[in-house]
Amino acid sequence: MNLANKITIIRMCLIPFFMLAYQQYPSWMADEYPIINYVNEYGVYWAVSIFIIASATDKLDGYIARKYNMVTNLGKLLDPLADKLLVSAALIMMVQHNIIPSWIAVVIIGREIFVSSIRILAAARGIALAADKHGKVKLVLQVVGIAAVLLGNYPFTYFTDFPVDYSIMMVAVILTVYSGYNYTKNNYKELNLEF
After folding, report:
1. In angstroms, rounded to a whole number, what is the distance separating the alpha carbons of residues 166 and 101?
2. How far apart are CA 86 and CA 81, in angstroms?
3. Cis peptide upstream of residue 163 (ω within 30 degrees of 0)
4. Which residue among 26, 51, 133, 173 sits deepest, i.e. has the most Cβ atoms within 10 Å of its Cβ?
5. At 75, phi and psi to the nearest 5?
6. Any residues with CB less than 8 A from the CB of 171 and at least 6 apart, and which?
7. How confident is residue 22, by pLDDT bands cut at 50, 70 and 90?
8. What is the widest separation between alpha-carbon atoms in the chain?
9. Hey, is 109 helix, strand or coil?
10. Tens digits of residue pLDDT in 124-182
């Protein structure tokens, strides 16, 4: 396994740490264990930091893969899968904490499952489909939107009362749907699918 793929695996391994940091633990645990009390109070900041670091490794592994000619079919499958798992975990946790409506998670995760199904079908036919540019822009918007919502519209609250965080999430949802449509349209002929 090359360096680029190892970085992708590291991104996947950071997901449980994000979830542990963002989790709210029972008060009896917080009273008994100072570390749990610390996580309850400051865990969201650690969770956002882990989320952003994990998201940033997407650029790093892609850069290394292209620069050092490490692009592999495994990497083409693992890289978008790691992104989907990271974003899906964040969305599910956000729904659990009632900070986004569940339909946002359903739309985004549903699109990711659909596109992943296309990739699996392609892989079964010996074709490795990489993410397109719309998918990459969509991911950036999702990351920014998720981080802003997790932080309660910070740092935008310094400048405006307008819910910039939710606005970014709405744009991300729209681009998520569009990029899924565009990805399907661009690849269905190659896979000989009927729509």
Report:
1. 11
2. 9
3. no
4. 51
5. -65, -40
6. 141, 145
7. very high
8. 60
9. helix
10. 777 767 667 777 888 899 999 999 999 998 888 888 889 999 999 999 999 999 988 88
In this structure, are residues 76 and 129 in contact, taking their beta carbons and an 8 Å threshold?
yes
Contacts of 109 by beta carbon, 8 Å cutoff, 6+ apart: 88, 91, 92
CA torsion angle for 86, 87, 89, 95 (degrees, to 10)? Answer: 160
**Does residue 184 contact residue 195 with C-beta atoms inside 8 Å?**
yes
Which two three-digit tokens encode residue 18? 């994000």
Measuring CA to CA, which residue among 86, 63, 89, 87 is closest to residue 75? 63
How remote is the C-alpha of 189 from its chain's centroid? 28
Q: What is the pTM of this model?
A: 0.86
**Quick one: CA dihedral 83, 145, 100, 16, positive or negative?**
positive
